[in-house]
């Protein structure tokens, strides 16, 4: 029986970003240097396949520093941690490596700089997300006010309307953030924004590729984890950009084939913490069912690379 033809649009860039790449490398190099087990506070990146792979190598994932022994190295996840965490590790004389993405660290430095200048901080982010918790934890309790949606801006209580600054979580949707920033600027005309957009280049690039791809496809799949903020935003961006069916899948097994019945084109992308092997798995399953013609939708070329901390480059 001949297979139905299908145009498969592949977004570029997609999948791993430089910060995720670096974080995974940090765990692998730490295990190589100090042997197993190496403890990791919170999932190093939001992807079950990646986390399981590192667990097999000897990484032990915990939620709190209190679960780690004093005599084993601990790594802080790519999402960043509150200042209290490295302070506690130092107090216990632990060996620790910070795998915080340099673009998240940039937001931390920015928040501290504004606070030093006497400005109260407003953070645009998702409550409870590790990156938001880490960024808010750079300053003393109560110094950072969280806003999640434009409506929150109306009820914000500030010390001094003329002394405010805002930062954003790096993995948000550019469009959503723009609405919140507009609301902040309308209510607080003197509010100070970031020198350069806080939303990271990789998040922006992946969203732009989806916007270019979405109008061409009958359906779109985003390979990523349900707790990955940037992956969930890609689904929303795809729906908004004109794709009738956009779905998040962790693996090829999660594809809802009934929902895809009768399609003639599909777009595939992946969140910044999804490895290429999972993307290929999804492409292969389409090739087994359809007569696939692949088309690349490329909106940017990424060649960013972040160095791993010096402690891992030195011999044990």
Could you characterize the architecture of this molecule?
With 316 residues, the chain is of the alpha/beta class. It has three domains: 4-16 and 201-298, 3-Layer(aba) Sandwich (Cobalt-precorrin-4 Transmethylase, domain 1), CATH 3.40.1010; 18-101, Rossmann fold (3-Layer(aba) Sandwich), CATH 3.40.50.11270; 103-187, Cobalt-precorrin-4 Transmethylase, domain 1 (3-Layer(aba) Sandwich), CATH 3.40.1010.20. Helices cover 36% and strands 20% of the residues. It is built from ten helices and twelve strands. It has helices at residues 18-34, 48-57, 84-91, 102-116, 130-136, 174-187, 201-213, 229-240, 276-289, 310-313, and strands spanning 4-12, 38-41, 59-62, 74-76, 96-98, 120-124, 144-147, 164-168, 219-223, 245-249, 265-270, 290-298. The strands form three sheets. It has a five-stranded parallel beta sheet, with helices on both faces. The longest helix has 17 residues, at 18-34. The mean pLDDT is 95.
Provide a compact summary of the structure.
The chain is α/β, with parallel strands linked by helices and 316 residues long. It has helices spanning 18-34, 48-57, 84-91, 102-116, 130-136, 174-187, 201-213, 229-240, 276-289, 310-313; strands spanning 4-12, 38-41, 59-62, 74-76, 96-98, 120-124, 144-147, 164-168, 219-223, 245-249, 265-270, 290-298.
């Amino acid at each position: 029986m001949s297979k139905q033809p299908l145009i498969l649009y592949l977004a570029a860039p997609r999948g791993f970003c430089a910060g995720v790449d670096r974080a995974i490398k940090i765990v692998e190099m730490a295990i190589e240097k100090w042997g197993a087990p190496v403890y990791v506070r919170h999932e190093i990146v939001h992807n079950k396949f990646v986390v399981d792979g590192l667990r097999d190598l000897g990484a032990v994932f915990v939620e709190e520093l209190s679960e780690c022994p004093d005599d084993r190295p601990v790594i802080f996840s790519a999402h960043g941690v509150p200042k209290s965490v490295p302070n506690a590790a130092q107090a216990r004389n632990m060996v620790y490596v910070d795998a915080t993405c340099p673009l998240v660290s940039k937001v931390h430095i920015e928040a501290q700089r504004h606070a030093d200048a006497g400005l109260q901080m407003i953070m645009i982010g998702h409550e409870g997300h590790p990156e938001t918790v880490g960024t808010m934890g750079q300053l003393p309790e109560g110094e950072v006010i969280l806003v999640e949606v434009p409506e929150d801006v109306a009820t914000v209580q500030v010390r001094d309307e003329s002394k405010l600054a805002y930062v954003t979580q790096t993995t948000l949707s550019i469009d959503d953030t723009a609405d919140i920033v507009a609301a902040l600027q309308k209510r607080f005309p003197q509010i100070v924004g970031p020198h350069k957009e806080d939303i990271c280049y990789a998040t922006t690039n992946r969203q732009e590729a989806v916007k270019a791809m979405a109008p061409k496809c009958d359906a779109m799949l985003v390979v990523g984890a349900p707790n990955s903020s940037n992956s969930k935003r890609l689904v929303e961006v795809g729906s908004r950009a004109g794709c009738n069916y956009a779905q998040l899948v962790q693996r090829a097994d999660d594809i809802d084939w009934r929902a895809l019945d009768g399609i003639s084109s599909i777009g595939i992308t992946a969140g910044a913490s999804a490895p290429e092997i999972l993307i290929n798995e999804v492409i292969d399953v389409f090739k087994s069912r359809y007569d696939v013609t692949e088309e690349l939708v490329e909106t940017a070329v990424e060649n960013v690379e972040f160095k791993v901390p010096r402690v891992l480059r030195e011999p044990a």
